[in-house]
Design a protein that fits this description.
The chain is an alpha/beta fold. Helices cover 36% and strands 18% of the residues. The strands form three sheets. A six-stranded parallel β-sheet has the order 3-2-1-4-5-6, with helices on both faces. A three-stranded antiparallel β-sheet has the order 9-10-11. One of its GO terms (molecular function) is L-malate dehydrogenase (NAD+) activity.
Length: 322
C-alpha cells in the first residue's frame, strides 16, 4: 500500500484532458450506466473542472454513482434512475452530455440506430429544455447527423433554442485521425492535430489531412486509404468486438476531451478550438462540423472550412456553397 504522502498524483496528461484550472460546474451524464457512460463519468470525476457530477440512466445508476463517489477527487457524485428522476438529475446543470442509446452491432450502420435513439434523445432533450435550458448540450448518441437536428427542434418547441450551445460530439473522428496519422508518420499523437469536417457517419466524415499540424504529406493511394480508415474506424471496432459492443472507451475519451474543452472555455480560457457538428451556414447543409472557437457562452466563432486540397474538395463538392 502507498502511504498517503507517497501516493502518486493521477493525471491524464494529454491535450485538454489535463488542466489545473478549477470551477464548480455541474455536469450531467445521461446514459451514465452504459458502455460509454461509465468510463466517461470516470474521466469527468477525475477533473478539477467538475464540481458536481449528476448521473442518470434507466438502470444501475445508484451503483455507478456509489462506485465513483469513493474516488478521492473533488466532484460530488449523485445518481438518478428512471424517468421519474430525470428532472431532478438536470436541475441546475451547466453542461449535459448525452451518450444514451443503443450501440451498434456487426452489420448495423449508424442510421440503423435512428428509430430507437431518436426517441431516446428527443425525450432527454425535452427534459433539458424544461430543467436547464441554458446548459451546453453535448450529444454523443448516434446517429449524430440526426440527433442534433432532433435536439434543436425540441429546444425550439420550448422557445429556448440557442444554436451556440448545442453540439454534436464528433471528437472521436479527430482523435482517430490524430492517432492514425501519428502511427504512419512515427509522431507523438498528443502533438498531432487533424481537423475533421462534415458529419459523423461514413463518407460524411472528411479529415483535412492537408491542414494537419505538424504538416504531413502522403502519396495519393496512402491518403485515400487513410481517409477511408478514418471514415470506417467505428466499423473496425464493431467488427473487432464481434458483437460485444462498439467504440466505447475511445468514445468516452473523446467525449471527455470535448466536455473539458467546453468547460475550459466557460471558465474563461482563451483559444479553445474543437470541431463539432452544429447549426452552420458554412455550407449548403444546415448542420455541419467545422473547427469552432469556444467561449463562455458556447460557440464564439465558426472557423469554417479553411483551404481544402483538391482531394478534400472532391469529397466535399456536393455540399460546399458555390
Amino acid at each position: 500500500m502507498f502511504s498517503r504522502i507517497a501516493r502518486p498524483t493521477i493525471c491524464i496528461a494529454t491535450r485538454s484532458l489535463s488542466t489545473s484550472s478549477q470551477n464548480n460546474a455541474k455536469v450531467a451524464v445521461l446514459g451514465a450506466s452504459g458502455g460509454i457512460g461509465q468510463p466517461l463519468s470516470l474521466l469527468l470525476k477525475n477533473s478539477p473542472l467538475v464540481g458536481e457530477l449528476s448521473l442518470f440512466d434507466i438502470a444501475h445508476t445508484p451503483g455507478v454513482a456509489a462506485d465513483l463517489s469513493h474516488i478521492e477527487t473533488r466532484a460530488h457524485v449523485t445518481g438518478y434512475m428512471g424517468p421519474d428522476q430525470l428532472d431532478a438529475a438536470l436541475k441546475g446543470c451547466d453542461v449535459v452530455v448525452i451518450p444514451a442509446g443503443v450501440p451498434r452491432k456487426p452489420g448495423m450502420t449508424r442510421d440503423d440506430l435512428f428509430n430507437t435513439n431518436a426517441t431516446i434523445v428527443a425525450t432527454l432533450a425535452d427534459a433539458v429544455a424544461r430543467n436547464c435550458p441554458e446548459a451546453m448540450i453535448c450529444i454523443i448518441a448516434n446517429p449524430v447527423n440526426s440527433t442534433i437536428p432532433i435536439t434543436s427542434e425540441v429546444m425550439k418547441k420550448y422557445g429556448v433554442y440557442n444554436p451556440n450551445r448545442v453540439f454534436g460530439v464528433t471528437t472521436l473522428d479527430i482523435v482517430r485521425a490524430n492517432a492514425f496519422v501519428a502511427e504512419l508518420k512515427g509522431l507523438d499523437p498528443a502533438r498531432v492535430n487533424v481537423p475533421v469536417i462534415g458529419g459523423h457517419a461514413g463518407k460524411t466524415i472528411i479529415p483535412l489531412i492537408s491542414q494537419a499540424t505538424p504538416k504531413v504529406e502522403f502519396p495519393a493511394d496512402q491518403l485515400s486509404a487513410l481517409t477511408a480508415r478514418i471514415q470506417d474506424a467505428g466499423t473496425e471496432v464493431v467488427k473487432a468486438k464481434a458483437g460485444a459492443g462498439s467504440a466505447t472507451l475511445s468514445m468516452a475519451y473523446a467525449g471527455a476531451r470535448f466536455t473539458f474543452s467546453v468547460l475550459d472555455a466557460m471558465n474563461g480560457k482563451n483559444g479553445v478550438v474543437e470541431c463539432a457538428y452544429v447549426r452552420s451556414e458554412e455550407t449548403e447543409c444546415k448542420y455541419f462540423s467545422t473547427p469552432l472557437l469556444l467561449g463562455k457562452h458556447g460557440i464564439e466563432k465558426n472557423l469554417g472550412l479553411g483551404k481544402l486540397s483538391a482531394f478534400e474538395r472532391s469529397d466535399t463538392q456536393w455540399h460546399i456553397k458555390t
